[in-house]
Amino acid sequence: MDMRLEVVVIPVADVDRAKDFYEGLGWRLDADVAKGDDFRVVQVTPPGSPCSVIFGTGLTSAAPGSAEGLHLVVPDIETARAEVAGRGVDVSEVFHDAGGVFHRAGTEGRVPGPDPERQSYGSFASFSDPDGNGWVLQEITTRLPGR
What is the pLDDT of residues 29-56, one digit of tens each? Predict the structure, then answer.
């Protein structure tokens, strides 16, 4: 049986601020539904993604800004970084990891610039939403077998 990741919930403090931020990134607004003062769900979807992101009121007990390592896969890290920056977002410079293909938590082990061999899965840039939820742009040009 296929199982597809459909929605990721992120915790935010200010729903309207988050909605403005993600719409400002060019993400599609799929829904904004409120049921009283204690429940609201906003769903947005990154361009080309089959998985959406939801946030709102009464959705999660997680602390606002506590989501980390949310990956957005892109075919060209430098173009993607420039697009995000061009939308007014504070995004890191492109980096690769000192020890291999996958990056570590935080900024330890980051080496400036894309992977020297431009290996798929090896180049990154990062940014956070206004609450501090952490996003990573990851360049993937060729998928691993079976993906």
Answer: 999 999 999 999 999 999 999 999 999 9
